[in-house]
Amino acid sequence: MELDKQSSWVERSLRSVWHPCTQMQHHAPHENTVPLIAVSHGRGAWLYDHEGRRYLDAISSWWVNLFGHANPRINAALKDQLDRLEHAMLAGFTHEPVIQLSEQLSALTDHVLGHSFYASDGASAVEIALKMSFHAWRNGGQGEKQEFVCLKGSYHGETIGALAVTDVALFKDAYGPLLRAAHVVAAPDARNAAEGETAADVARRAALDVERLFVERGRHIAAIIIEPLVQCATGMAMHDPLYLTLVRELCDRHQVHMILDEIAVGCGRTGTFFACEQAAIWPDFLCLSKGISGGYLPLSLVMTREDIYQAFYSTDVRRGFLHSHSYTGNPLACRAALATLEIFREDDVLATNRVRAQRLTDALAPLAQHERTRHFRNRGMIWAFDAVDAAPDFSRQFFSAAVERELLMRPIGTTVYMMPPYILDDEEIDGLAARTLAVFEQVMAA
Ligand SMILES: *Cc1c(COP(=O)(O)O)cnc(C)c1O
After folding, report:
1. Which of 96, 156, 303, 441 is deepest in the core (most CB within 10 A)?
2. Predicted confidence (pLDDT) per residue in 107-126, tens digit
3. Quick check: 93 pLDDT over 60?
4. Spatial separation of the C-alpha atoms in residues 388 and 247, rounded to whole Å
5. Looking at the predicted structure, is the pLDDT value of residue 214 above 70?
6. How far is the CA of 264 from the centre of ligand 1 (A)?
7. What is the CA radius of gyration of the chain?
8. Residue 2 has pLDDT above 60, yes or no
9. Is 122 in the pocket of ligand 1 (CB under 6 A)?
């Protein structure tokens, strides 16, 4: 009976739901079928299917879930908010959750980024930052600044504007003719270190590439967009914080805005609340999404500085920032975010994560030292390593084998990574490491 229920949900899904970032044929019944899992409910770090099988959510459901599924504190906040106000338009109206969230986020940047503009998904936040940068320059009489710079291997979302500053061939090539070209500069990926070079050396070398471009073209460049510390979607490429410090100086010197896309790396993921804190800098625009609502509801925002805000402040409507989404500042999503920030404060999450991270790093030692892995790396609550001589369909094989061992993990190409929620207990940490090793050895032996 129960089994029928599971397979029937899967069948129905495949008939009518077009799944994201998925070749649907891979789910069709044939030899190399990748399982589609119909989730019935979630609790803590675990997702459960209709057969009662469970899966440890080691990637926080695409990097969004911070404090587990069905978190009692976030649930309670949302239930309370439901009975007060589910939504109201944010043009001409305002409400408590969006005000409190904006104030608290501003305080987290020492009020340097004191103005928050809201949307619903990460790609939209990136669109907003790009438009705002261009428009701020134009309002200041520098309308010729229309070009953008991104990093090799960057990922900033998949709408047309965000895709233009994304450098992932698979996502970009198909839609290339629709996109406005951006400048692509060297990535500071520490794996590019030559013999005897440190990660800081790689950062300096990559910053020189930015300098060359700014010297030549800076007058036409509005902004550079960067995923600080970890370029996630490209395969958890990590760099030295020095890179951010150097690019900040270059941006100041050449009058180019710095957009930091903290959609994946923000909200404590790299060990500090904002990744850029580790470089002791603030950008001109900071994009947040994913974890900010605890993984509950679609919410994104762009934080910016007073001088940028002032560039739009005028009696002229056309000088104002012309952008809106129907669900801008949705009260439920903002309330989920407030509950999330409260957990950070009450549980001293950044400190307890340091203890969790150390335990998982220790438990992963057999993988770090494994002869078939390279570049084992960790920053905050992100771990990754690259498989050596892996099969072409390594990622799919790994996913399928992981599911068999109650583990939700989706390698990016040959990079295996973990981005777990911030709630794993010791048993879950040790289990995650042991299962990952077992899955890896099984797939590499195949
Ligand atoms: C996920 C992600 C985005 C896009 O966010 P969506 O909500 O999926 O549109 C943008 N930038 C980075 C760094 C991301 O990881």
Report:
1. 156
2. 999 999 999 999 999 999 99
3. yes
4. 33
5. yes
6. 7
7. 22
8. no
9. yes
Q: How far is CA 167 from CA 29, 137, 198, 258, 434, in A?
A: 33, 25, 25, 18, 34
Per-residue model confidence as pLDDT tens digits over 308-353: 999 999 999 999 999 999 999 999 999 999 999 999 999 999 999 9
Query: Ligand 1 centre from 259 Cα, in Å?
Result: 14
Does the structure show a pLDDT above 80 at 32? no
- Report if pTM > 0.85: yes
Tell how far the Cα of 124 is from the centroid of ligand 1, in angstroms.
Answer: 9
The mean pLDDT value for 424-428 works out to 98
- Tokens representing 328 are 């801008």
Residue 199 CA to residue 423 CA, distance in Å, equals 30
Nearest CA to ligand 1 atom 7: 122
The pLDDT-based confidence of 3 (bands split at 50, 70, 90) is low
| Cα(273) to centroid(ligand 1), Å | 17
For residue 110, what are its two tokens? 């020492």
How far does the centroid of ligand 1 lie from the alpha carbon of residue 156, in Å? Answer: 6
Compute the distance between CA of residue 201 and CA of residue 437 in angstroms, rounded to an integer.
32
Tell me the Ramachandran region of residue 197: left when phi exceeds 0, alpha when psi lies from -120 to 50, beta otherwise: beta
The answer to whether the CB of 165 is under 6 A from ligand 1 is no
Ligand 1 centroid vs 429 CA: distance in angstroms? Answer: 26
What is the pLDDT at residue 35? 83
Does the C-beta of 95 come closer than 6 Å to ligand 1?
Answer: no
Q: Is 387 helix (H, G, I), strand (E, B) or coil?
A: strand
Q: Is 262 in the pocket of ligand 1 (CB under 6 A)?
A: no
- The answer to whether the beta carbons of residues 316 and 58 sit under 8 Å apart is no
Mean pLDDT, range 413-417, rounded to an integer: 98
Q: Does the Cβ of 121 fall within 6 Å of ligand 1?
A: yes
The angle at the Cα of 382, spanning 379 to 384, to the nearest 5 degrees, equals: 95
Q: Where are the beta strands (DSSP E) in 58-156?
A: 115-119, 147-151
Give the span between the Cα atoms of 338 and 176, in whole angstroms: 39
